[in-house]
């Protein structure tokens, strides 16, 4: 009963938020705001979602020009993953309150800009729960969905659906609409002609039933290394890597060099929130979008010390920062070939952030957003 009450509480809160958006129509962005939002999209989002919002450029990031998504997802179904990320996926939180680079208004402006790029009318979704046979839904999911979304909802080529926060903050009708109508411009097909209404209800109910364990984890934030600590093992010898294509270092070689106590600098080029969650011990967070990159570059050694960049995707952000390094004259640089996900999957160690358990009913949303 406790889980049911919490689920209703969260769903009801989301419904109230969505209702407030319907009652208070969004104000169109000014030309200045639209230009800033477009620039923010290119700065923070295009790396994975694509310059033209086409999706699946890196990390299977979804298309953000899908009419199906934008007609039903604007704004709150897009706000939560943008602001707070999708735990367990490469999608990190961009909200400044969780270590991201964006304010609340900046995120809402990007979402408004995305909607302005697509000529679509808002679809009013029911706030009522979808009732279905979860046992039947499990069978249909295994047959029709698991290949792309993963047997446990972990995501393969499709979106990771086994995400407690996503399921907790997504209305049943949003999930059902996506199953029934698909996501245009993506590999997600419409199942309206393949599945019966009862089967679609069953899959929706099954997905809802996966939102179990109503406790969240709140990170305990830590400070990045001081500039005098950027160089690991400053008195030691440099590693001697045989770089793939003159650029890439393998995880096994980097791990050995770290265990041998070799001299180098590690730059974590992901979103700051991901560095907080887990990073290679001793790495310096330098997000690929960081405006103060030149100042940080001024603090890096210019004596030829090897600088290794890494990211999550597995290389796009790291390569981006590496190009900036080489343009500034840092010739001795490398990119971790497998990225940190590959590093972790191969069993190499990371420094993990600390968390404390927080009950969902104790989590409070931020103040009301501005009108756009």
Short structural description:
The protein contains 14 helices and nine strands.
Describe the structure.
Helices cover 41% and strands 9% of the residues. It is an alpha/beta fold and 372 residues long. The chain has 2 domains: 2-213, Cytochrome c-like domain (Cytochrome Bc1 Complex, Chain D, domain 2), CATH 1.10.760; 220-355, 3-Layer(aba) Sandwich (Oxidized Rhodanese, domain 1), CATH 3.40.250. The strands form 3 sheets. The protein has a 5-stranded parallel sheet with strand order 2-7-6-3-5. Strands 1-9 form a two-stranded antiparallel ribbon. Strands 4-8 form a two-stranded antiparallel sheet. The longest helix is centred in the first third of the chain and has 22 residues, at 2-23.
Q: Which features characterize this protein?
A:
alpha/beta; 41% helix; five-stranded parallel β-sheet; two-stranded antiparallel ribbon; disordered N terminus; 372 residues; 9 strands; disordered C terminus; 9% strand; Oxidized Rhodanese, domain 1; 2 domains; Cytochrome Bc1 Complex, Chain D, domain 2
């Amino acid at each position: 009963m406790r889980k049911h009450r919490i689920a209703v509480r969260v769903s009801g809160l989301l419904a109230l938020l969505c209702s407030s958006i319907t009652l208070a129509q969004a104000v169109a962005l000014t030309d200045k705001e639209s230009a800033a939002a477009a620039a923010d999209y290119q700065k923070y989002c295009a790396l994975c979602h694509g310059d033209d919002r086409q999706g699946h450029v890196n990390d299977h990031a979804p298309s953000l020009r899908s009419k199906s998504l934008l007609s039903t997802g604007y704004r709150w179904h897009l706000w939560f993953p943008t602001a707070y990320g999708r735990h367990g996926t490469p999608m990190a939180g961009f909200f400044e309150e969780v270590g991201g680079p964006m304010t609340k208004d900046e995120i809402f402006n990007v979402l408004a800009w995305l909607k302005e790029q697509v000529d679509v009318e808002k679809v009013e979704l029911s706030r009522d729960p979808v009732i279905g046979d979860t046992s039947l839904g499990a069978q249909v999911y295994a047959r029709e969905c698991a290949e792309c979304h993963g047997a446990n909802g972990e995501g393969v080529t499709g979106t990771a659906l086994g995400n407690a926060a996503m399921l907790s903050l997504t209305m049943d009708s949003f999930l059902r609409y996506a199953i029934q109508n698909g996501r245009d411009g993506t590999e997600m097909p419409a199942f309206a002609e393949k599945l019966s209404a009862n089967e679609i209800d069953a899959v929706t109910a099954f997905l809802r039933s996966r939102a179990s364990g109503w406790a969240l984890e709140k990170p305990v934030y830590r400070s990045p290394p001081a500039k005098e600590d950027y160089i690991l093992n400053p008195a030691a010898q440099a590693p001697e890597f045989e770089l793939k294509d003159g650029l890439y270092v393998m995880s096994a070689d980097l791990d050995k060099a770290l265990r041998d106590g070799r001299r180098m600098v590690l730059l974590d080029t992901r979103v700051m929130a991901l560095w907080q969650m887990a990073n290679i011990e001793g790495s310096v967070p330098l997000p690929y979008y960081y405006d103060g990159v030149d100042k940080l570059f001024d603090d890096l050694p210019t004596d030829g010390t090897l600088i290794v960049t890494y990211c999550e995707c597995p290389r796009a952000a790291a390569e981006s920062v590496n190009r900036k390094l080489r343009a500034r004259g840092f010739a001795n640089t490398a990119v971790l070939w497998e990225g940190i996900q590959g590093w972790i999957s191969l069993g190499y160690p990371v420094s993990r952030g600390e968390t404390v358990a927080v009950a969902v009913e104790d989590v409070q949303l931020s103040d009301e957003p501005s009108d756009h």
